[in-house]
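seq:
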Amino acid sequence: MKSCVALRHVAFEDLGAFAEPLKRAGYQVSYRDAGVDSLAGLDPDLLVVLGGPIGVYDEAIYPVLSEEIALLTDRLKARRPTMGICLGAQLIARALGARVYPSGIKEIGVLPISLSAAGQKSCLAPFAEDPLALHWHGDTFDLPAGATLLASTPACAHQAFSLGRSIIAFQFHPEAGARGFERWLIGHGLEIASAGLSVPALRADMARHGAALEAKAARTLALWLDGLVVAEASTLPIAGL
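struct:
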């Protein structure tokens, strides 16, 4: 059985709607909690770096960020299958040498994304039919050298990118759905209030769109995992070489 480790920063930002499709695809899923569990020797078949409320540029305050960047730098150099979501995407961008910084805008809620031409042919194709996704961020990043831009919004030009078939990063939250969303509203209560947003309105939007978001999550993940299988097959040694 293949291994998937999800690196978690806060308990309520977990694999969400990605968890069951990963298990159905044959992955044994486990979590490591950043700042609590050791990252030494961590080398699963698939690493998913999840979101969180801290900034990549806060290494002096949160030393674990430096550990995560070092882990990702080695993993990305080896082109090991890696996915980043929100903070995880920013950490991947930083490990690839790109700048990560506050955008000056809080983009929070169920809002559309726009796919690039490459994005429409990628695992994000389900969002071409229904572009709504959960956003929850105030930071952004420059597009890393060699990366392919997959999605944007007016407030955040770099919403998703890939590097080959094995590395993908989402600034938005494709894994989010209605299940467990109440934990987000509680855990991010201060941020919601400081952004002048309404908890009941966010709750109502997720109730309205949650099932569709979860369905897109399953399709998006399946398409990306299919790409990993193709990539693995294409790199198998050829007899006689």
